[in-house]
Amino acid sequence: TMEALQALYDFKLLSSNEFTTLSEAYQFYRTVEHRLQMLEGRQTHLLPDNEVQWNFLAKSLGIASGKELIEKLSNYENQVRKIYDSVFAVSTKVEEMDSAFLLDPDITPEKATPLLEPLRCKNPLAILRSLHHLAYGRTTEIWPVGTKESFQLLLPHLLEALKNTPDPETTLVQFENLVVASRVPKMLYQICLENRALFYLLIRLCSTTLQLAQIFAQAPANFDILFNFENLEQDFQPDQTAQQFWNSYANLSFEEYIRQLVRMKNFEYLRIGMQELSRKLSPEQVWQQLSDLADVTLQLCLRKQLADLVHLHPKQSLPPFGIFGLGKLGGRELNFASDLDIIFFFQEPRTGTAETAQIFTQLIQHLINAFRQITPSGFLYKIDTRLRPEGSSAPLVITTQQYLDYLCKRAQLWERQSLIKLRFIAGDATFGQCLENEVRQFVFATSLDSLQIDQIQQMRFSMEAKSAGIGAQLDIKNAPGGIVDVEFLVQMLQLLYGNLEPALQTYSTLSALSALAELGLLSKETAQFTERHFLFLRQIEKYVKVGLGKTRAVVPLHSEALDFLAYCLGFSRGEEFRKTLQEQMAKMRELFLQVFEKEKNTSRS
To answer: Which backbone phi and psi does 548 adopt, to 5 degrees?
Structure first.
């Protein structure tokens, strides 16, 4: 019951006050129930019928008198009944005026205003237009018989759900687009009526993750997520998905293969998103599954390219080759709308190194172009290759020996730090694991001295310039106390102690934080706050990108955006969210400075 109350609150079906009242009342009722049964020695729910028994029961609960206990029970009873009546009444506005009136083809915005007033709509005509489209279909497509009647049954619940969203008009338009894209509106309405939790999940999708809602509407096949409920219960299975896709589409032309790959990626992307909205996955599980999805996409693209190459040049023999992830991809921390940071290496052949490098360069350039290719369902991912040795002006692909020589002779501290996240993604698995191990040995071969700790800190400070001059926005990635503070603090400690502690040689920020706390290298309080703060910022980053459509992790500080983010993250008001965010970022910066200063002093001594 407590978990159900929490879920109802998370989905905005209960207000903060209602959630608190019901939780406290339920726990108090259960405590009274237990005391009654202990005192009676049997299962009973009957309250005392005389003053002596009331006083005895009150004292067993730590309450001064039976009279005070009766008053407390009466107060809870009245509060719970009030909430109960408000929930089952649907809406007093809806009771006063039949919501079906809104579907009258001759209704005017003026006549509809009393019923639409709770939606705080700026454009009643636009609301009415969407409602009529949902009932009758758009001009170009008329809904089947019975659709209007099904929608009419859903309409009171839709109006009630829209009341609680930050932007009812935008949410309704997105819901309309989903219904039109489904091509089976009557079936969708019936599913929403039969499965109210799924209906509210769709409303939350349309109100908080607009980009995911838009992807949803791009292909009718995406509605299998709704029509086959098992899709919402299953975790992403990388190996199984990859093999099924290859068996189905391996013989297609490369262009059509990529189109199908985009559709597969979108389907899994949405399924993971729906699972997160329904709280079936934690944020960390979402990052891991999104990273696995990106891995599979890269593996399938490369597999098709190599198969086509062998078909065209059957006598062509290539040495082992690998694609490696860095950054969020390498750390298995991808969020929605994240880019992919990747680099490429091949094993130096006995002869023809230059010719082999040219073949692999063309292969990788083809892969990058394929990932950027715009299809009717969108594109795969944005790929960033600037973290390769010598930067964006260097060759796309080099040999492992060239790379290891570079690491030993010219690699800078920031590169060593970034290579904490290096992870093999696609290609020859034996080759990839071998190179990954060699790089890991380089990264964790030695500790840091005080000058290197200070150098990492100064690199962090220099990045803060990126957050300057962006106007009335808060850069939650680069500003003091932002995501980069967490990453640099953790990575500095990994480099400082990782040569002696294998548990710190991990791609994952959260795993490293946990290990630092277990090893006593960070206090549990500092590690727990840093973890909560990191999760908080990454959730904000997600909603900023897929909800507000921003390309950078910046929070606009105007009331409309703040209210939207407050709704997404469970705050009552935008101002409360802003205050909490700024206070936590200030605390994170304070901890960042304290830890760096402590470790510099320790290293000097």
So the answer is: -95, -10
Q: What are the beta bridge partners of residue 423?
A: 325
Separation of alpha carbons 461 and 542, rounded Å: 24
What are 215's two structure tokens? 């992807």
Tokens 């939780």 sit on residue: 23
- Assess contact for 434 and 398: CB atoms under 8 A: no
Q: What's the gap between Cα 74 and its chain centre?
A: 43
Beta-strand (E) ranges in 99-220? Answer: none
In angstroms, how far apart are the furthest CA atoms of the chain?
100
pLDDT at 91 over 60: no
Domain edge (last residue) among 49, 71, 88:
88
What length is written for the chain? Answer: 605
Residue 261, in any domain of the structure? no
CATH number at residue 548: 1.20.120.330
SS3 assignment, position 479: coil
- What is the number of structural domains in the chain? 4
- The Cα 378–Cα 212 span in angstroms is 12
Q: Which two tokens stand for residue 32?
A: 């009274």
- Structure tokens that stand for 79 in this block: 């509060």
One domain for residues 99 and 80: no
**pLDDT digit string (tens) for 70-90?**
888 888 888 888 887 666 554
Distance of CA 412 to the CA centre of its chain: 33
Residue 246 lies in a domain: no
Pairwise CA distance, residues 304 & 319, whole Å: 17
Tokens matching residue 409? 């002779």
576 and 499 assigned to the same domain = yes
pLDDT tens for 130-157 read 999 999 998 777 788 889 999 999 999 9
Give the residue among 496, 568, 490 at the shortest CA–CA distance from 529: 490
Mean pLDDT check: name the lowest of 17-26, 94-103, 333-342: 94-103
Residues 6+ apart with CB under 8 A from 574: 559, 561, 562, 563, 564, 565, 566
- For residue 260, being part of any structural domain is answered with no
Name the residue range of residue 488's domain: 450-604
Is a pLDDT exceeding 70 seen at residue 40? no
Both tokens of residue 542? 């997600």
User: In the chain, helix, strand, coil percent, each to 5?
Assistant: 70, 5, 25
The contacts of residue 478 (CB under 8 Å, 6+ apart) are 463, 464, 466, 467, 484
Phi, psi of 40 (to 5 degrees): -85, -20
Strands 423-427 and 397-399: unpaired
Task: Please check whether residue 137 lies inside any domain of the structure.
Answer: yes
CA geometry: angle at 390 spanning 385 and 391, to 5°?
35
On whether both 462 and 562 belong to a single domain, the answer is yes
